[in-house]
Amino acid sequence: QVRLVESGGGLAQPGGSLRLSCAASGMNFKSATMGWYRQAPGNERELVASISSGGVTTNYADSVKGRFTISRDNAKNTVYLQMNSLKPEDTAVYYCNRYPSPSLWGQGTLVTVSS
Q1: Dihedral through CA 113, CA 15, CA 115, CA 5, nearest 10?
Q2: Sheet with 10-12: strands ordered across
Q3: 104 neighbors 60 (Cβ within 8 angstroms)
Q4: C-alpha to C-alpha distance for 96 and 84, rounded to whole angstroms
């Protein structure tokens, strides 16, 4: 069974940074394109960034381009999201999952950007 465990969220000030991690198990991680998604209160879940199985190709939503960096370590079955220059509108629960066909969702990790 697929299990995704996100961590690293918390409270950050505008302009600050956070690094999210997602440990995956029960799936062929090394062959999967992975994505980070987020869901803000009252909004639908949206894709923030994706990374190809080998880590060569990355894509970002326009709202985070130049501020967020997605990476992965296939030896550790882990995908990361480095978030810099955080804005209040980045406040959301962040999830990782396969892209474009997500499996069961994990619990996510809450990121709150506020002064």
Answers
A1: 30
A2: 10-12, 109-113, 92-98, 34-39, 46-51, 58-60
A3: no
A4: 18
How far is residue 25 CA from its own chain's centroid? 16
β-bridge mates for residue 51, sequence order: 34, 58
Q: What is the mean pLDDT of the chain?
A: 97
| Residue 23: band (very low, low, confident or very high) from pLDDT cuts 50, 70, 90 | very high
**Quick one: 81 exposed, middle or buried, by C-beta within 10 A (0-12, 13-18, 19+)?**
buried
- The pLDDT tens digits of the residues spanning 72-98 come to 999 999 999 999 999 999 999 999 999
